[in-house]
């Protein structure tokens, strides 16, 4: 399994790369090869006097390479130019990555300019599952907020096809998952759940699958605004990662449900894993 790890070489993104526990979790789910990617923005010119941006970034990536190789992974490095989220997505597609990882400090607009905006743009456009690794705010030497990436999962579902695809990631996440909470937020219209079907029963069916893998599982059916209720569940259960599909129900509701996943990326206290729809051939 290959993963792309995007870094802007800030202290925040460095925390993701240098966390031994996070690297151990990636190994448990089957990641063997990590591609470190840093993007020099298009508005930074190679000819700016006294600064060799590409050389500096390659030197920084070489330091990160040593850390990750010591953890037992094969490592490739990429220094590219362009729009960060587009280049990151392009490399993920080219190498056939199964996961893209990006660090983000989260809520503060002032502290979330560079890698934060990249995380939000990747949430809209990613073609692979995207792990947004939450980093501490308001400190010069930040660490990851929750080290054990997949130990306690919060899975939010609207019973759409893409939510089912997100659930399928447990086929490999289960090797690092001990506990899971399955959440459904009822709204006035749930087009992908037949009227006669009980959401609690549907969650129980999913829970049974996880319990067969030895994952301790509980369910929670809520009512209200999807993003608000998912974030409330995160605050209550304190998962290490919240797992959601990045799109839901139908094309007509795509923008609405896309905004829910983006809202969760921006406002969640812990890590968030987004699973995009399957690409049409």
Written account of the structure:
The protein is of the alpha/beta class and 281 residues long. It has two domains: 2-134, 3-Layer(aba) Sandwich (Rossmann fold), CATH 3.40.50.620; 152-275, Rossmann fold (3-Layer(aba) Sandwich). The chain has ten helices and ten strands. Helix 4 (84-95) packs across helix 5 (115-125), helix 5 (115-125) runs antiparallel to helix 10 (254-267) and helix 9 (226-237) runs parallel beside helix 10 (254-267). It is globular and about 60 Å long. The two termini are 22 Å apart. Residues 107-115 and 248-257 have low confidence and may be disordered. Pfam families: Usp. InterPro entries: Rossmann-like_a/b/a_fold, Universal_stress_UspA, UspA.
Q: Can you identify the CATH superfamily of the largest domain?
A: HUPs
Q: Which fold name corresponds to the CATH topology of the largest domain? A: Rossmann fold
Would you identify the CATH architecture of the largest domain? 3-Layer(aba) Sandwich
The figure for the number of domains is 2
Could you name the ranges where pLDDT drops below 50 across 5 or more consecutive residues? 107-115, 248-257
Q: Give the CATH level 1 class of the largest domain.
A: Alpha Beta
Beta-strand residue fraction: 15-25%
Oligomeric state as shown: single chain
How does the overall form come out from the CA principal axes? Answer: globular
Order of helices and strands: EHHEHEHEHEEHHEHEHEHE
Major sheet attributes = 10 strands, mixed
Termini, distance in Å? 22 Å
What would you report as the Rg, rounded to the nearest angstrom?
19 Å
Arithmetic mean of pLDDT: 82
Number of strands: 10
Provide the spatial order of strands within the biggest beta sheet: 3-2-1-4-5-10-9-6-7-8
The class by helix and strand makeup works out as: alpha/beta
Portion of residues within helices: 25-40%
Number of helices: 10
Pfam families: Usp
Domain UspA: 4-132, 150-276
Organism: Natronorubrum aibiense
InterPro entries: Rossmann-like_a/b/a_fold, Universal_stress_UspA, UspA
